[in-house]
Amino acid sequence: MSKRSQLLKGVLEGCILSIIKITPTYGYELSVKLQDYGLSNVSEGSIYPILLRLQKEKLIVGEMKDSDAGPKRKYYRLTEDGEISLQNFIKQWESIKEPVQSIINKGRE
After folding, report:
1. Backbone angles phi, psi at 60, to 5 degrees
2. Residue 40: what pLDDT?
């Protein structure tokens, strides 16, 4: 596993929860949105296991809905616990983002 993949794996759950918070989203759409944000090497194969785990942990719920473009799709939305988990992720991210950036910047000098 590449260094980028290892780093991304650690934050992907928070990114997925954040996207789902904005609007209920289905798996393939998540992949496209992540790519739109610049995370181009995130495959559907890495998204679906995370969605299953988040569902088992009751952080998201899925609901089958009709699609204009084919079969029904499972749209995911946050639960109350999912919202709490997202807020915890954001706090943790904020607590490490600036110190890590400071260290990296210092190393560039």
Report:
1. -135, 160
2. 82
What is the pTM for the complete model shown? 0.87
Give the residue extent of every domain in the chain.
Answer: 3-108
- Residue 86 and residue 18 in contact, taking contact as beta carbons nearer than 8 Å: yes
Determine contact, residues 18/11, Cβ cutoff 8 Å: no
- The tens digit of pLDDT for each residue in 77-108 reads 999 999 999 999 999 999 999 999 999 998 88
Q: How far apart are CA 59 and CA 67, in angstroms?
A: 24
CATH 1.10.10.10, domain 3-108, yes or no: yes
| Torsion 70-43-31-53 (CA) sign | positive
